[in-house]
DNA sequence: AACAATATCTGTAACGTTGCAGGTGCTTGT
DNA sequence: ACAAGCACCTGCAACGTTACAGATATTGTT
């Protein structure tokens, strides 16, 4: 009856799965498929009346664009890929990052896809895979290195990405980072306030960007306070927990053992405390420990710990925000953020909080 | 020159992104697109010689099927969706599940997509979304309930899925589960062997399937050993950690307080121990705790704990295996597995291991 | 009245893939 | 010599979407 009826003849109006397509709506409204498509994306050459009608019907029948159709036609996947190193136990906090990302992605058409990789293989492999097969519109990476090849690669190709951690390549790219320099200063400050004089740092792997930040902040604060640094370069925070424990026990059996330890991660703090107690020492008496924590678990473990909170959900949100901005070609400067810790939470019997000195206070989160 | 040259005329031979398609290979080999497609999937009506030639060229140019093309044509997404409850702190172990899943998926064309949801909304929402929009070929769910609506829904629609945890619906579906019944029995056994007589259980939420398994195993073992159960029904393992701590402190201040506690999760054990010590009690002296752990962290925290290991990486592998099998229409019986713990690891000064009694020993993993 | 501009709508083709219904040439059986 | 069968290959059409280049009707201009 309708002049659009013929377009309904070729091909089924409603696919067997019952999902409405543009054609379904076109038939229902008596319009052309193109018109429906353009009406749904609020194009300027469609009358307000038609748009409203189409959108009403679309909502009514529960229309959802077919992702494969869009992707095939436009190349847009509406997917962002989270690269995950699946090697270490260290993966613990990724659940919080995921939570943050999905918070930020709620209400957008984006899906999160996981691209796991092992550090035993070339870290470029997963990046190349996603970029070459265009299986996502953008990538979030972590374990960023100062001269990160992945950053170079994606920048050269103009592929959107955001990094958890900064680089030192002279490339201006989207990132989010926790201020580990500030963390280390705060941690040292809290131990110094307890009267500790010989401090050791359990740092992240030297290849990672934040190794430098943390060791710099540590060295600076130790020097400023006139303390001694006990070198400890045999263990890193993301090593297996038993290894850390063993290395810390070695450290504590040295003639000049530290009376304060700064831990670059909450997980490793458990190993450190265990090592301390296995050596017959008591936390808070012969030695103190300041650490990062990403859940309240660490301090629930030993209330004597000095802790600085790192919020990985925030990191997830910021990374997603940065990546979406990058995909939308927003200026890179708006897509960089630093999360600056501003206090240490200590044992209840002690001063509850060790506040940062004014000079150390956080600049605005988004610089 | 070649009679296939004309097919190269319409449409670009190599898309601007440089990715080879079937058409590219068709041109290079002088064959038709259909032939190439069929040769690559080893169809019987293509000569061995041609297949080899096509496959060689395909490998050479790094051909990868365009996922959107395949998906549009066949409806197959080559994606599996992992449903994640993003509410609780409890998400901790999901990183291990992810690891296991990705291990099992390596070498397959499957991608993992995350579908987060909040328990504050209808748990059916994410399932409906995936099924209706066909954004995945299968779903993995956890926090399974005895009368899980999601299982019913997906079964009715013939949508492939696997559950972490069993149901009680009379529906035969793919699942993997940890034997929490056996866990509870082992835990009680280890505490009984220490001479503990009044035991309390920190169980999972009553709505979840494994609540029943764990409480049943607990009650059984307590009765068999002639011990007393101290009811404790105000806290569950996936509550906020501070809440658990507070409830356990209440429990310990009751006139008839327990001298042994079984914890249904490693995380909650930290809160329990903290509560114990906050009450002025000493772990291993007035009271003992047996718990599950999924990483060595828990026991590193307090070596006095009795722990049973739950391997979430194994769970991830089994779930992925079950789901792939389900997608491939393999018989459901091969897609169900139970992981049975067989020992408790205790404090070093004590008997190192509390072995299960023969009667409790694990049946084969895959029943 | 003729023409141009505007507002609104539409058909065609293409993205890459695969099911289908042939097609071609060669071998076999009678 | 001819049909039937076989081995192997191929066009066509369609999956759902959107860019593009019109088409049509209405209004404004001269």
How many H/I helices of chain A? 14
Give the helix/strand class of chain A.
alpha/beta
CATH superfamily of the largest domain in chain A: Response regulator
The overall pLDDT of chain A, averaged over residues, is 89
Kindly state the percentage of residues in helix of chain A.
Answer: 40-55%
| Strands side by side in the biggest sheet of chain A | 2-1-3-4-5-11
| Oligomeric state of this protein | homodimer
Name of the top-level CATH class of the largest domain in chain A: Alpha Beta
Beta-strand content bin of chain A: 15-25%
List SSEs of chain A in N-to-C order: HHHHHEHEHEHEEHEHEHEHEHEHEEE
Q: What is the correct CATH architecture of the largest domain in chain A? A: 3-Layer(aba) Sandwich
- Give unreliable regions of chain A as ranges: 1-10, 349-367
> Which chain pair has the greatest contact?
A-B, 49 and 49 residues
Structure in words:
Two copies of one chain form a homodimer. Chain A has three domains: 3-64, 434 Repressor (Amino-terminal Domain), CATH 1.10.260; 74-178 and 312-341, Response regulator (Rossmann fold, 3-Layer(aba) Sandwich), CATH 3.40.50; 180-309, Rossmann fold, CATH 3.40.50. The first copy, chain A, has 14 helices and 13 strands. Chain A is 41% helix and 16% strand. Chain A is elongated, with a radius of gyration of 27 Å. The first copy, chain A, has helices spanning 5-9, 22-29, 33-40, 48-61, 67-74, 94-105, 124-133, 149-157, 180-193, 209-224, 241-252, 266-278, 297-301, 312-327; strands at residues 79-85, 111-117, 138-141, 161-164, 175-178, 198-202, 228-229, 260-263, 288-293, 306-309, 336-339, 343-345, 353-355. In chain A, the strands form three sheets. In chain A, strands 2-1-3-4-5-11 form a six-stranded parallel sheet, with helices on both faces. The longest helix of chain A is centred in the middle third of the chain and has 16 residues, at 209-224. With 367 residues, chain A is α/β, with parallel strands linked by helices. In chain A, α2 (22-29) crosses α3 and α7 runs parallel beside α8 (149-157). At the A-B interface, α5, α6, β2, α11 and α12 of A face α5, α6, β2, α11 and α12 of B. β2 (111-117) of chain A pairs antiparallel with β2 (111-117) of chain B. The first copy, chain A, binds a DNA duplex (30 and 30 nucleotides) through residues 7, 10-11, 15, 21-23, 31-35, 37-38, 41, 45-47, 50, 65-75.
């Amino acid at each position: 009856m309708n002049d659009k009826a013929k377009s309904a003849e070729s091909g089924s109006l409603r696919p067997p799965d019952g999902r409405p397509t543009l054609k379904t709506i076109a038939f229902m409204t008596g319009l052309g498929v193109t018109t429906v498509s353009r009406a749904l994306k609020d194009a300027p050459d469609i009358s307000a009346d038609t748009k409203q009608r189409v959108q009403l019907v679309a909502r009514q029948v529960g229309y959802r664009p077919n992702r494969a159709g869009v992707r095939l036609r436009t190349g847009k996947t509406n997917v962002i890929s989270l690269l995950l190193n699946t090697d270490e136990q260290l993966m613990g906090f990724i659940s919080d990052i995921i939570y943050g990302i999905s918070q930020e992605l709620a209400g957008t058409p984006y899906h999160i896809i996981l691209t796991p990789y092992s550090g035993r293989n070339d870290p470029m492999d997963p990046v190349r895979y996603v970029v070459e097969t265009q299986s996502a519109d953008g990538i979030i990476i972590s374990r960023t290195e100062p001269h990160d090849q992945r950053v170079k690669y994606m920048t050269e190709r103009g592929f959107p990405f955001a990094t958890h951690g900064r680089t030192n390549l002279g490339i201006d790219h989207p990132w989010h980072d926790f201020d580990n320099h500030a963390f280390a200063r705060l941690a040292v400050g809290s131990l110094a306030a307890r009267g500790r004089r010989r401090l050791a740092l359990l740092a992240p792997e030297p290849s990672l960007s934040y190794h430098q930040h943390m060791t710099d902040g540590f060295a600076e604060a130790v020097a400023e306070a006139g303390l001694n640094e006990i070198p400890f370069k045999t263990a890193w925070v993301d090593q297996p927990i038993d290894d850390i424990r063993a290395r810390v026990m070695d450290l504590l059996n040295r003639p000049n053992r530290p009376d304060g330890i700064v831990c670059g991660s909450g997980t490793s703090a458990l190993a450190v405390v265990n090592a301390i107690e296995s050596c017959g020492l008591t936390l808070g008496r012969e030695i103190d420990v300041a650490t990062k924590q990403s859940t309240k678990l660490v301090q629930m473990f030993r209330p004597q710990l000095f802790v600085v909170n790192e919020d990985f959900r925030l990191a997830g949100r910021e990374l997603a925000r940065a990546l979406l901005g990058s995909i939308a070609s927003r200026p890179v400067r708006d897509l960089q953020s630093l999360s600056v810790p501003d206090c240490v939470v200590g044992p209840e019997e002690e001063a509850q909080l060790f506040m940062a000195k004014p000079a150390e206070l956080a600049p605005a989160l988004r610089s």
